[in-house]
Batch of 2 targets.
Target 1
Amino acid sequence: MSDLHRRQALSPLFTFLTAGLATAGLAGGAGCGETNTPPPKTAASAGVSNVQAAPPVDRTRCKSEGKQIVAADTDLDKKADVWKYYVPNGSGAQVMTCKQVDLNHDGKVDITYYYDDTGTQSVLEEFDLDFDGRNDLTVFYANGKKVREELDTNYDNRSDVWKFYEDERLVRVERDSDFNGRVDQWEYYENGRLDRIGYDTSGSGRVDKWDRAPEGVDDSLPGATPAATAPATAASTAPAPAAPTAATTPPAAPASVKK
């Protein structure tokens, strides 16, 4: 068993999230806290990244400055494992800006939720799937709906899979199959089903080869294996991915919080 597979097998959070239950049932307890968790992983390379820039997020919402922090000990081991950050809303009430959870009670934050100005909807969620202190999955929201996911599948501290959603339906998946920090495969979905796949075979950062999903294959069903083998008749008829943009600079890591 490879080191990567061993880490996945030993991580209950990895199993939990990849089973499709990423954000369910984690509201228990109050409180929030900061650790020396490294900044979120973003795709970058020595050259210009062709990864579409992520939506902007105010990451100071999970900083302690100017906020009331309420901590909770959910497993009664006399150590806080859930933290919430609050700021006054100007009307005498407190609004939650951030929540962090130490899921396996090892003193490190495993899940971080960033909230909007109302304190009711997530704008960003970060997950440490293998409990190594580094985020492996980042989920972006707009108006309460998921719009983007970034996943580090080989745990090298760089995202290599990006999923894009419209009305919470998957419309495109971009992959860095050789883990060099640049997208080289684009999957397009129509009505939730794989329609076509574009490949960068030359290293240009753009699609130069297209495959079509075979007719009659419902890849939305469990166990379906839609191998895209039928080449497209005209690559120009399919939309190309976004033009290359510079990778977003990650924020500085938060300071430690005394517990």
Target 2
Amino acid sequence: MSAKSVMKAVKESGISIVAITDHNSLSNCSAYEYHAQQNGIKFIYGVEIQTIEEIHIIALFNKKKEAMNFDKELYQALLPVNNKPDYFGDQVIIDADENIVKFEERALINSVKWSLEETVQILRQMDTFIFPAHIDADTFSIIGQLGFIPPEIEFDALGVSAKCDLQSFLDSHSYLQGKTFLRNSDAHYLDQIGSGYTRFLMQEPTLSEIGFACQKNGARKAVIE
């Protein structure tokens, strides 16, 4: 899953906009951004945050500087547990040439100390797009952990897994009818890239326009197939 090989697979899959959302870290985003640009792909800084309830939340950022400042805040919120490389593997940080510049010692697989509500409140103070990941999954999803999506927490969309049968899912979760859904690959291996995606009808390839598409602003819309 090197930056170069990932962006090559993204391009071959016909994807024109991509977000890299590593678990509890944005440290490798700049390296992936470089290789996205080399392939003519619009890159969005993102992260998958695991809240104290073990819920996965995706945060996408309009501004690189804001994203990297948040990364520092997120790191401080991680539980103080070290990684076990022999079990979980090395956590490497790379540069644009794919040289390893650092081995992250803090275990990124754990939760942060923020609750779901706190996480969303912190992110709403920035120019972000927020959605719960793979809500149809049994584990690490908002429905899997809580049993429902709290109506008082506002998300920009709802994420479903690549294999989700959306109609069947809505049949058993009818209160979500009318919501905007995004399908993503959530790829952990190269052959999973492009397995799930969303088509956006919008004026330009920006995160702001993705937000407008999810709001069905004008002729804009988000479509999953």
